Amino acid sequence: MTRRKALLALGIGLGLATASPLLQAQGGDKAVIRILVGLPAGGGTDAIARYFAEQLRAELGQPVIVENKPGAGGRLAADALAKAAPDGLTYMIAPNATPTFQTLVFGHQLRWDLWRDFAPVAGLVSYPIGLAASNALKVGNAREFVAWAKAHPAQASFGTAGMGGQTHFLGVQFAKVAGIELQPTPYKGTPPMMNDLLGGHIPAGVALIESLAPQHRAGTLRLLGIFSDKRSPLLPEVPTLAEQGYDVTLGEAWTAMWAPAKTPGAELERMQQALARILARPQVGDHLRTQLAVVPRYLDAGAMAAEQRKELAAWEPIIKASGFKPE
């Protein structure tokens, strides 16, 4: 089954998953758990959240629904989580871009503080981000792309699904390390960027591996490398950019769960342990890798908070040095 088919299959249950808590609770008197998602239904984060919601229903014996609140790069769902009662019934599943880049880039616009208003629950999955080139360039690796960019400085650019996020700053950092000028070309999401990359309208693009891998395998673009410190089991034949001499290794994206601050410790522990049991199952790992193009990566709350602090510390000077200011 392809990722697209998997998303469509998950989408069939959209009506049930987003039904009212009252309807979901019929047939039982257990309270409904809500999982907030700040991105649209049918996307990658939504698919991950719905899969874990399905697993949690069975594991906890309790209704679990997904509630999409798309907009502002995940900020609307985070706003709702910050306002939610800390009763163990509301959680958020989000990619690292929501807390990390919202905090570092848009912090002055936020209604919440990552450490004051949220409690980490568990890390769930990780997935690499890659640099791809249009077939029109006829380059086979990152070194050849850098040579092309140096020879064509007026044309050298990369597509990104919007400004101020991880793919944008990875492209900026790659250009700095490679010693080239590489202007970002922002798009309203990954699909239009991919269309232009495949059509040869932009020379390169930075995106999640889930978008690049199918086209790479089909030969319609060239995946030059991933922004990770080691090769990914999702695409072991693709080298890291560090292997090729470009030490940019902050491109391992991840998805995790948060709760409102002051959620009782017993509730956090209950959810954390349920997720640990789910992620320990081989069939869950197989499904995540083959159907959702992500790698299972359980982190308990302490390890997740440490990862978050490490990521914030690593990105803050890079973002400041870029001079980027949100509009």
TrEMBL record:
<feature type="signal peptide">
    <location>
        <begin position="1"/>
        <end position="25"/>
    </location>
</feature>
<comment type="similarity">
    <text>Belongs to the UPF0065 (bug) family.</text>
</comment>
<dbReference type="Pfam" id="PF03401">
    <property type="entry name" value="TctC"/>
</dbReference>
<dbReference type="InterPro" id="IPR005064">
    <property type="entry name" value="BUG"/>
</dbReference>
<keyword id="KW-0732">Signal</keyword>
<dbReference type="InterPro" id="IPR042100">
    <property type="entry name" value="Bug_dom1"/>
</dbReference>
<protein>
    <submittedName>
        <fullName>Tripartite tricarboxylate transporter substrate-binding protein</fullName>
    </submittedName>
</protein>
